[in-house]
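Q: What would this chain look like folded?
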Amino acid sequence: MATPKVVMTSTELRLRTCIGCRKRRERVKLFRCVCGEKGAVIDRNSAGRGARLCGVDFARQALWIGAYAKAWRVEVD
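A: My prediction, written as structure tokens:
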């Protein structure tokens, strides 16, 4: 007997994880940071690897734990 396929709802597809607090939230409630040619940019539409954050407090925490380097796959000072 075949196992049933898991179907994700549209709400589940929009969830993203904050790299600072590691909580899952809807994508529209998070800021998207992108590591581009000019450095880190907060923008929803920029091309490149993105990292999502809940707010400024978690941006500092993510920097402290090294989450940007892991999310962007680059070395971050």
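The chain has three helices and five strands.
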